[in-house]
Amino acid sequence: MSLPLLYIDPGTGSALFTILIGAAATVYFLGRALIIKLKVVLSGRNISAFSGQAYPYVIYNEGKQYCDVFMPVLDEFEARGTRLLYLTSSEDDPFMNREYSHVKTEFIGEGNKAFSRLNLLNADVVLMTTPGLDVYQLKRSRGVKHYAHVLHAPSDATLYRLFGTDYFDSVLLTGDYQAEDIRILEQQRGIPKKQLVTTGCTYLDVFKEKIKEIPEEENHGFTVLVSPSWGPSALLACYGEKLLDPLAATGWRIIIRPHPQSKKSEAAMLERLQMRYRESGNIEWDYERENIYSLKKADIMISDFSGIIFDYMFLFDRPVLYVSHDFDPRPYDADDLDHELWQFKTVKKAGIELKEENFHRIAEVIKNAKDSTALAAERKTARETAWQYQGEAGKKIFDFMTSCLS
User: Fold this and answer.
1) pLDDT band for position 176 (cuts 50, 70, 90)
2) CATH topology of domain 49-201+390-403
3) CA torsion sign, 243 to 248 to 254 to 255?
């Protein structure tokens, strides 16, 4: 008698594979930790002897896309003559080639190689954008006194995957409003209260200055920027050709800037769309690390729930069309909240909704999407709420990190 065949759907298979990889990584790191503990016990020395040279301050950058987040902080440490170790998982990180006197840079690889280095750090204060400390492979090192997470967007702090900031000692906010939801989650989950310090938004400070150096385009024509988030609830995944076909038919210049994570998680979808519009002379694809060049070119933006909406509103003060879709909060910390997120409420006030039934007349919708004093006022309110201490973020983060030792 033949045995019945077992079928595992792709989604379940992917989840099982992720669990197996996570379990293997956990065993690996636990094994390394056990070896170090044995060495400590047998030698009678402190664990710092096996964790490398001690540094008072360490910054970890998981990818080149976050360089502008850390640039003002590195510059401030250098300007104040304070020793800092900068670890990066980007082999072509531009900071590796800078001539610093007080900032030491080090490439530590990616994935498990990087986690192996980070999990054995010996430092007083560690700053990173990477969420999920003590959740998956990124473990708290016994040689580190304080872990600080810096938010890399002026949007809600609860749009990380579950437990994104739970186990940090502090979270550095771009605006005071982000603190409320973090406090709600702490109370719900019974975890200790973190230090919540509003320092401003470093990368917006950087972009504001860089924009001044970008030359104006001449005779480029009307430009629409399509810049969504990623995942099953995002604009390209939900609508794809339904939106892009009528946009392409307008004859306007259309710049499509997918979320950086889409290249990793939705490569097949992007390849399909790029093939579909490969003969369209008015469609461009933007995969540059920095978004400000496309933002500056755009006369109007179409997005979803992506935080890039606020980059565009705050830096260029131009109108935004947003496509409303049922956002699934279940993978995110936001799922434990019983109220609407700040950014969704704000986009409804400061943006113009684009409904699916109006995709076929997108040219008319965009022509009628005139700016108004009311929309401009809402953008101003949002900017003042979510981007506090403009131009001061690097200094404030330096002051916070160094105050942790006083």
Assistant:
1) very high
2) Rossmann fold (3.40.50)
3) positive
